[in-house]
Every structure is written in structure tokens, then in C-alpha cells.
Design goal:
69% of the residues lie in helices and 0% in strands. The protein has 143 residues and is an all-alpha fold.
């Protein structure tokens, strides 16, 4: 068996997957591109296993582990994408950058601080959200 044919096919699959990861904006298409890259690795593992005539078939064993990892990755990835889609209404990766907490949430004044009131007998320091109202505002700012 010639090793060049599966190696070239695997290289093409990996390049298409890499392009999909770098160029796509839809999270589901990015996950599909990652799967293409993993399948290219699997093809290389099996091709080299056959070419080297390994008696332990370690390439095929590693391929089974890679398939199991890919299945787990897709399951968790799709769950995350569905949760984000339910919250945001889109699976666009560029819009997902807004999910990170910003410094603006920490700068929101606490209602107790704005009124000058004390919480638990001690006055809160500026920028601290010790009370429930401050935590509520911080949670609202991040969503």
C-alpha cells in the first residue's frame, strides 16, 4: 500500500478543517471543522499503522481513543452551543465575546452605597458588592 495517498488526503482534510475553524463564525460549523481535523489525524494513524505493519495495532487503538474523545467533545460542544443559543438567540462566535465579565460590572454602585447605608453593621468599601442589591446589579450587567 502506498502511504502517499492517505497522507495527502489527511493533509487536505486537516487543511479544510483548519480553514473552517479560522474562517467560520457559526459555532456549529467550527465544531464540524474540528471533527474534520480529528478525522484527518485518525486517517493518518490508521495509514501509518498499516504501512508499518505494527503487530500491536497501536495506530488503530489510538484511533479508537480519538473517536471516543471526539464524541465527548461534540456532545459537550453542542450542549454549550445550545445553551448559548437559548440565551443569546444566535450562535455567532463574534457575538459570544460579550459573555465575558467586564470591569463595568464591578464599577456599578451598590444601592446601599448610593444611599450611604451600612450592611451588616459595617460600611462597604467603594466598588464592593456585599449586599444582595449589588450582586443583582452585577448579574444584570453581565447578562
Amino acid at each position: 500500500m502506498y502511504l502517499a495517498y492517505p497522507a495527502v488526503l489527511a493533509a487536505l482534510l486537516f487543511c479544510v478543517g483548519l480553514y473552517g475553524v479560522l474562517a467560520r463564525r457559526n459555532a456549529i460549523l467550527v465544531l464540524m471543522s474540528v471533527e474534520l481535523m480529528l478525522n484527518a489525524v485518525n486517517l493518518n494513524l490508521v495509514a501509518f499503522d498499516v504501512w508499518l505493519r505494527d503487530t500491536l495495532h497501536s495506530g488503530q487503538a489510538l484511533t479508537l481513543f480519538t473517536i471516543a474523545i471526539a464524541a465527548a467533545e461534540i456532545g459537550i460542544g453542542l450542549a454549550i452551543v445550545l445553551a448559548v443559543y437559548r440565551n443569546r438567540g444566535t450562535s455567532d462566535i463574534d457575538r459570544l465575546r460579550d459573555t465575558a465579565e467586564t470591569d463595568e460590572a464591578e464599577r456599578l454602585p451598590d444601592t446601599a452605597e448610593a444611599d450611604g447605608a451600612e450592611i451588616d453593621g459595617a460600611e462597604t468599601a467603594p466598588g464592593r458588592a456585599d449586599g444582595k442589591a449589588g450582586k443583582t446589579k452585577k448579574a444584570e450587567a453581565t447578562t
